[in-house]
Design a protein that fits this description.
With 292 residues, the chain is an alpha/beta fold. It contains 9 helices and 12 strands. Bound molecules: guanosine-5'-diphosphate (GDP) and magnesium ion.
């Protein structure tokens, strides 16, 4: 399950958003213990498929949402606060933009700088330690230069495997959520202004797509990385389907909605054939064939 961590200054609306997404209402005040909940992505395509085939059960993609306490902008975040975020797949940066008197542009820039400063400190201490041991510092100096140009390490052009384990926060993918739309925010990073766009935004930032299955009485949506082969995608459903993979057939949901019936589409001969190494396209409805 994709893990989404809400990160923002206190009062930016993290808990408010958390509650809207997850429907949970309790609140934990320990800065190092999150509110944890599940957000269900009511994918529109699956809704349409549901209207047509009226399955007994519909299974939507789920996201795990983490809401930590924030710290005031003037005070900044304590260093070890960021440890909370290393387990997540994406940071949703929450910027307060629902009051006339706030400056969301400044707040966002300050928040990004918090991430960058955190990593600068980390990288500087790594360089220090390595200097003492006289042990490869080149790549770390490259990182430091990059950070000092106010860029995020997720965008640096080096083999990032070497950086894993160093607890660098700017390696994470980020999506900005403007909480409210009082003022326009200029940024080179992906930003959304409406909570309805959150899941689409997350999938886009993470380079993920959605495919669908209709099996028995269940219609289900699955989120996978863009470049996953049909065989590996099958493994998301069940390891046995991957192991015994024979082939898959696919139809884009738009065509399915037009035709309105899977067997009819099959008889018309318009299903795409997918071999084990074929790539899945966003919005495909897929039927897998496998041996047991
Ligand atoms: N009007 C308005 N108030 C909001 C919005 N989001 C949060 N708030 C309010 O702002 C205050 C701080 O929100 P909260 O979620 O506790 O912020 P957190 O510290 O980031 O968790 C609360 O009183 C919320 O009800 C919003 O979009 N519009
Ligand atoms: Mg809160």
């Amino acid at each position: 399950m994709i893990k989404v961590a809400l990160l923002g200054y206190s009062g930016s609306g993290k808990t408010y958003i958390f509650r809207q997404i997850t429907g949970k209402s309790e609140e934990i005040f320990d800065p190092f213990k999150p509110n944890v909940g599940i957000g269900i992505y009511k994918d529109e395509t699956l809704e349409k498929i549901k209207e047509i085939i009226k399955p007994k059960k519909v299974v939507y993609p789920e996201f795990e949402i983490y809401d930590f306490k924030g710290f005031p902008e003037g005070q900044g975040f304590p260093h070890n606060y960021f440890k909370n975020f290393f387990e997540s797949d994406i940071l949703l940066l929450i910027v307060k933009n629902f009051l006339d008197e706030t400056n969301p542009q400044e707040e966002l820039e300050s928040l990004i700088m918090e991430l960058i400063y955190h990593d600068i400190e980390r990288v500087e201490s790594i360089i220090e330690a390595r200097k003492r041991e006289n042990f490869g510092i080149e790549i770390w100096e490259k990182c430091l230069d990059f950070l000092k140009k106010e860029r995020l390490l997720k965008d640096i052009d080096i083999d990032k495997k070497q950086l894993l384990g160093a607890e660098l926060i700017t390696l994470k993918e980020i999506l900005i959520f403007s909480n409210g739309n009082k003022k326009e925010i200029k940024t080179k990073f992906p930003i959304i202004y409406d909570l309805k766009e959150i899941y689409k935004g997350i999938l886009e930032v993470l380079g993920m797509i959605t495919f669908y299955t209709i099996k028995g009485d269940i219609a289900q949506a699955w989120v996978i990385p863009k470049n996953l082969t049909a065989k590996s995608a099958a493994g998301k459903i069940h390891k046995d389907i991957e192991k015994g993979f024979v082939k898959a057939v696919a139809l884009n949901f738009k065509e399915f909605i037009e035709i309105g019936d899977w067997n009819k589409a099959k008889n018309m001969g318009i299903l795409k054939f997918l071999g084990p190494n074929s790539l899945i396209s966003d919005g495909d409805i897929i039927e897998f064939y496998f041996t047991k």
